[in-house]
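Closing statement on the zinc ion sub-project.
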Amino acid sequence: MAAAVERVIVSSNPENSMSLQKALSAASPLTLRIVAECPVTKARACDLTLPHCTVNTPVFMPVGTQGTLKGITVDQLESLGCQICLGNTYHLGMRPGPDLIVKANGLHGFMNWKRNLLTDSGGFQMVSLVELSEVTEEGVNFKSPYDGKEILLSPEKSISIQNSLGSDIMMQLDDVVSSTVKGPRVEEAMHRSIRWLDRCIAANKNPDKQNLFAIIQGGLDAELRKACLKEMTQRDVSGFAIGGLSGGEEKNDFWRMVTLSTDHLPQEKPRYLMGVGYAVDLVVCVALGCDMFDCVFPTRTAVSVLRPVLKDKLKYIYIYLYIYIFLSCFYQRFGSALVPWGSLQVKQKQYAKDFLPIDPDCHCPTCKRHSRAYLHALFKSDTAAMHHVTVHNIAYQLSLMRSVRQSIVEGRFPEFIRAFMKRMFPSRDDYPGWAVDALASVNVTLD
Ligand SMILES: [Zn+2]
């Protein structure tokens, strides 16, 4: 079945007026307009129009729904200028369940979020439940962490849940293997992901309203990745995600797989690099040609493992361990404020009497109102400090991407990268080697 999607590319090519007309006449849930392309790197700035609003890319997509633990409201996300956020299919599909969400007019209605939503397939959470899950051709079998019942998450089931959620972008169910796994399992997962993509395309009941993205797999093997790219780009999907990375592999392998993927992905469709959120990674991967990013580290790693473990008394020791790791990740993450010169640990003593905001150049509600000293004091007694720092961190990510976009539009992205790196690292010797190599591969030499 064909997903009824037409795309518009408004670039230097004037012959696109026909595809523009075609697109206007079609009921299209996605159009991509390339606003500017960097003449030096592979970076581009696009207007990605989805059913709920236009998204200016490159874009960072924060997590906006259950399972986030971020304590940020949709109002705040909206006022920070967020145009698209992530919903968590696994958690929402389990609780409160798709039926209730359908009654609330989908996830948009349930959350009262008027902009775009991207939902994952639920597959990634299965990897977190690795002890309890088993992958077969049919799908992923696992025990519900809520009641211990056997559940099969098939490609059809994943799309059915995402159809109920009504997200603007749905992700295919893929066979996820850790990026550090090698050998035949990687090849098997890549081929299975292609077969599952076909089943997801066939299962989509709302191709005129909901976009489906394929996920390129193939681990760190260039030939497997190329084979996956060749197959998947022949499918009628609205966009492509680069999957199976950011899982602890060497950064040198990471960027080479990213750039290989963007080399083979079609220009006219959006490219989403999954699981990437550190500032340096974002800037480098924009230069390598990626448009969309997300990062949901704390939810992915710890939360979903807690409940099933409770079933086994012998594993009580692990419960404490998981809780400890989870809380320290949580605390660490929210105690750490992102700034153009790296990060600032508000909890540190040196900020106890510091009346500057986290970042004097930041325009977020936290920096407009509160000092480092106040936040430092708040951290001792109140979780509200985490909330304030989270608001700042999301504002930082969104504002970083806006600056990146602006520099691409104004034709000065390479200069932007040089200035960004200079500010982020105390000296040239501190630049990560992989970033230097990755940038050199797209003609940007750092001074
Ligand atoms: Zn701020």
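Residues 384-409 form the longest helix (26 residues). With this model delivered, the sub-project is considered complete and its resources will be redirected to Aim 3.
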